[in-house]
Amino acid sequence: MKITVITGTEVKGCTWHLKEAFLSELRKGNDIQEFYLPRDNPQFCRGCKICFFVHESKCPHADKVMPIWDSMVNSDLIVWAYPVYVVLRTPGHVKTLLDHFGCHWMVHRPEPKMFTKTAIVLTQSIGAPNGSAQDDVATSMSWLGVPRVKRLGFGMIDGVIWEELKPKRREKFIRKTEAFARSLKNLKPAKGLSLKGKFFFEICKAMQKYLLKKTDKPSADAQYWIDQGWISL
Ligand SMILES: Cc1cc2nc3c(=O)[nH]c(=O)nc-3n(C[C@H](O)[C@H](O)[C@H](O)COP(=O)(O)O)c2cc1C
To answer: Are residues 178 and 81 in the same domain?
Structure first.
């Protein structure tokens, strides 16, 4: 199985230890490609919209974004590991990467290879609920067409320095994370879009058909839908 791992911090702290515990169960026999943020995609989306109007390869940050996107497209499992930051959401650099994937959202140019994938959202905070921060990535994954998104989140409680947490708590986090990873060892590809995904896909298709009728020249998005055989002129 191919696995892309995107870690939303460069610090070798709580997130990193949980991510390593997760991967320790999956390293054998799997092809793992790892990225760290902000290192591997340090630039904010500039809002030029060239990805929407022309192609994502024309993005001024394509040299950083495309390798991550290509790795995701070629993976069976996409793992996101990150800490919860203010305002109880994903760190800004994770959001920055998600912004760069906007052109692949269902409403624009969804990649059919995403329709069989599983995504993992692994988070921790000092004590705040993890749900909203997980939603940032989970919502993005769903709109990219990923039908299965599984989550695991922790509250560190004792502090924010891994080595200073009580050993028993650290062990508990590690055990739970390893068990979570073991449940994915015999992962089979999903059979396609989820029911909700299919519903959104049909709405997007109707929208693309409608927009196509109103123009002489298909937009980059409409042309993509035509090329995929999802709509016709
Ligand atoms: C800038 C920043 C903001 C944070 N905001 C919160 C927060 O609002 N609530 C919370 O429970 N933890 C917060 N934390 C703690 C992190 O979620 C995490 O527990 C901590 O950074 C340890 O993880 P790490 O070693 O992977 O960095 C924040 C940490 C940082 C660096």
So the answer is: yes
Residue of 67, 19, 20, 17 whose CA lies nearest to 41: 67
* Cβ pair 36, 10 in contact under 8 A: yes
Q: Where do we find the tokens 């624009």? A: 108
Residue nearest to atom 18 of ligand 1 (CA): 125
How many separate domains does the chain show? Answer: 2
Q: How far is the CA of 36 from the centre of ligand 1 (A)?
A: 17
Separation CA 67–CA 122 (nearest Å): 22
Determine the distance separating the centroid of ligand 1 and the alpha carbon of 143, expressed in angstroms.
27
Protein residue whose Cα sits closest to atom 4 of ligand 1:
85
The model's pLDDT over 103-153, given as tens digits with 9 standing for 90+, comes to 999 999 999 999 999 999 999 999 999 999 999 999 999 999 999 999 999
31: phi then psi, degrees, rounded to nearest 5:
-100, 110
DSSP-assigned beta bridge partners for residue 68: none
Instruction: Name the residue range of residue 210's domain.
Output: 194-233
Determine the residue type at 86.
Answer: V
Q: Which residue's alpha carbon is nearest to atom 31 within ligand 1? A: 85
Say yes or no: 62 and 169 in one domain: yes
Q: Is 81 in the pocket of ligand 1 (CB under 6 A)?
A: no
Same domain, 152 and 199: no
pTM of the model: 0.97
74 and 182 part of one domain? yes
